[in-house]
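User: Quick sanity check before I run a bigger batch. Here is a single chain. Can you write out its predicted 3D structure?
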Amino acid sequence: MVLKISHKVAFGFSVILLLLFFSSISSFGILTNIETATAKVDNYALPIQNHGNTVQKQLLKQAKSTALIRSLPTTTSIKNLEQEFAEYDAILQLNKLKISSLLSAFPNINNLDIFTQSYDAYSQSVKAMLEHREGELSETIKLYEQQQSLYDILDEASAILIDLSFLEDAENQRKIDTIIGSASQIEGYLFNLTDASKSILTLTDIAEVEAAQQTMNIGIDNIEQLLIYLVRLGEEYNTDGLIAQFVDEFERTKQALTSDNNLFSLKIAQIKQREALQIALEESDKQIELAIQAIDEFLQAVDQNLMALQLNTLDNVKRGNLETIIVFVVLFVVGIVIAFVTIRTLTGALKEINLALAKIAKGDLSEELKVTSQDEYGELAKNVNLVVADLRSLIGNITENSHLLHQAADKSSEQILLVSDSLTLQGETIQQANSQTDELAKSAEQIQQSANSAEQQMDSALSQSHELELTATKTSQGMQRLTSMLDDTTDVMTALEQESNNISGILDTIGGISEQTNLLALNAAIEAARAGDVGRGFAVVADEVRLLASRTQDSAGEIQHMIESLQKQTKKAVSDIKVGKDEAINCQKETEQLQQTQLMISNAIKEIHQVSSQIANSAHMQSDLTNNINESIETVVDLSRETSEKSTTTMSYSEQVAKLAAQLDESIGTFKVT
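Assistant: Done. Predicted structure follows.
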């Protein structure tokens, strides 16, 4: 088997490619490890960390909302906070679910279960807090309603006792004084009960409430004892039912203080709800701390796993760099060895071929290369020998053709001189025709300018005519709208006149009522004067009524005067509007006549514009035809000039061809073919 250069080169590159293949496999393994670690970081660790941070944020938001539960003023605010807490919980549960689905990549992390237990306990505590706060608000509302009801009853009872203190009877003054004294003592106890009922609202301890209840029971017992004595006194003296009324109010007081939903039971229920709320708050604080601690520990574990993945990736990168350096050094050494062997093999054969090619470059085609091998260099030597043989034959043919080319160039120069003289005479004739065409073009251009000027003036006149027509149309439309508006205004003023007449009738009625009221007030004053001191207050009221009736009558007169003035102005306005309407109708008719005249002017201007446009178009066509003729003549002149120049150039080229043929003969003489 003959070992060719291509085989040697292929063997060297195969060794290099094999080393590169092993290096690529190693790098691929390292990159796969890096990619796996990076994917684990991107697809698991970082999302878990982000979701964990979101859970932590929602947990802090819930803790902030929990701190506001004790200060919520209404059940509506409780519902709003409960809804807000539920929204935070939904976001937290969603992120916790995502974390659970991602934890399969980190089986050593189990802190999330601890967080779930603490968070569930915290959620139950918050739910209990909301229920207790809502219960506390409900009991507070009932408590205030019950206290207000009791206060109203006690206030009514106190008012009855005050009425008893105003009893007067000179014949039974002693009995009355005894009744008033008993009523005063009872009133003192009632005052104490009222203060005690108010103070209950501020109590914060159940024992204090029970003590207040005992105090109020003692006060009720004392009132009952005094009431027995007061009832007995009432049996001896008629108090017009005041004592019986007080007994009824006192029974209502006892019922309010001894019923199932009495003031004390409601206050105790409120305190119990508040204490339960405090217990739930403490439990929620405890559970939220545990939940925050658990999520912190969970995030720390995630951070530790993330750090381990990053360190593993860094180790893979370092190992990959080391292996890359080692492979590079090995490839560099092997490449130098292969290059040295290959260059040494190639340079020996190339020296002989280069020497032969150097002789050929100097024109020596008499020698041939010796073929000593069967590889690519042997084939190259054979091909060089074939090229030398072909060059010998080619140079012989070029020598013969160069003599023929020199003779043809001389004949071509003679013919080109004749063509150049003929083209010069043709150019002078065309130049005269060109000058005459220029004069015709200038005349056509002047006609076109005059026609264009006339057409522009007609356009301007037509535009102004259109504007005047539009203005007249708008004026006519405006007059029509004005006439319609004047009709509407006339209707409104007529309606206004009718309404003012109606108001005049109403004012007449008010005046009659005022006179009757004045007479009635006068009669009442007379009757009050007859009644003496008893009717004094009624007399004052009668005077005020009479004064009010007098003022009403005066005001009605003033309004009547203003209505009459308004009616006069309305009639005058209606008359003026009718005159304005007639003027508007006349103006509209004149505007319509102006529109017809303007239409006739516009039609005349359009006809003149059409004639002017036809003149301009004809002048434009004449100018275009003249320009086309001028351009055609100029094109012929240019072509003639260009042909003359090309003939001159061709003659110079013929001279150059003759010179090149002579130089070619000289160059061919340098080659040695035998």
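The CA atoms of residues 92 and 265 lie 41 Å apart.

User: Great, the batch can go ahead then.
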